[in-house]
Amino acid sequence: MDASLSTLTNCEKLSLSTNCIEKITNLNGLKNLRILSLGRNNIKVLNGLEAVGETLEELWISYNLIEKLKGIQCMKNLKVLYMSNNLVKEWGEFVRLADLPCLADLVFVGNPLEEKHSAEGTWMDEACKRLPNLKKLDGTPVIKQEEDEGDGES
Asked: Which of 23, 26, 99, 36 is nearest to 65 (CA)?
């Protein structure tokens, strides 16, 4: 991701998929960026997103080598995160997504964490418990179970 990217000041959607990119860099200057597509690269960490943290609404970053989610917390307006087929293994990393106040649509299928818990039949429940504001997980609408407010009335 070379420095000439910063000249794209009016760019709202940037697609750099399938480019062997290893690091997210040179996003400063992209003051209007709303959608960033970086799928099918060799990205290992989410550093470098700070420059678009205020504007980015969608991050498409599936099929990379991401194991840790440190750096995602700067994405205060992120609504959509497609990060299937990465290497996230631990709930401790997954819960970093709870720092994203606007996140409504998450695709996480194909990560070791999801595969393990889907095989056990607990993925949707466990993931939604940790991210209570999600509206859609892995393409499936999240149905909130209403808490029983009754007093045992029959």
From this structure: 23
